[in-house]
Amino acid sequence: MALQIGDKAPAVLGVNQDGKEIKLADFAGKKVVLYFYPKDSTPGCTAQACSLRDNYSDLQKAGYEVIGVSADSASSHQKFIAKQNLPFNLIADTDKKLSEIFGTWGEKSMYGRSYMGMFRTTFILDETGIISRILLPKEVNTKEHAAQIL
């Protein structure tokens, strides 16, 4: 069962691009934008990351910290961060544990072909780690994502 509004996020979120464990407690007193995206360096995912990067100071002023999550490796995340100059952590959810807890990993289809993949979903956590808002795949506008959050 995927986490819903009102549920508490797990204490340990995963490991970032540098191999550092990312814990919810690291962001105590801040709202967290936990966004799940399909793949580093693809057009939609780049547009989404750049929207968050370009509006990062506004998000921080509003009390938010941004964390991206995909099933890509830490080295893939490092390249994506360097190429796009991203100022926030990306979690390498290679075992898909976090994605499964949040219900963002599942069967997708494209051109009649089914495959397993990440659903583009954003969870807004309040200052205590409780999910206060969820932007589902059909609701996420990659180019205007920061504005949607603010």
Any key phrases for this structure?
single chain, 150 residues, alpha/beta, Glutaredoxin, five-stranded mixed β-sheet, two-stranded antiparallel ribbon, 5 helices, 27% helix
Can you walk through the features of this model?
The chain has five helices and nine strands, in the order βββααβαβαββββα. 33% of the residues are buried. It has 150 residues and is an alpha/beta fold. The model has no long low-confidence stretch (mean pLDDT 96). Strand 6 (105-110) and strand 7 (113-118) form a beta hairpin. It has one domain (12-149): Glutaredoxin (3-Layer(aba) Sandwich). The chain is globular, with a radius of gyration of 14 Å. Helix content is 27%, strand content 31%. The strands form three sheets. Strands 5-4-3-8-9 form a five-stranded mixed sheet.
Query: Please, how many domains?
Result: 1
SS-derived structural category: alpha/beta
The CATH topology name reads: Glutaredoxin
Profile the largest sheet: 5 strands, mixed
Separation, N- and C-terminal Cα atoms = 28 Å
In terms of DSSP E residues, the strand content is 25-35%
CATH class wording: Alpha Beta
Helix content: 25-40%
What count of helical segments does DSSP give? 5
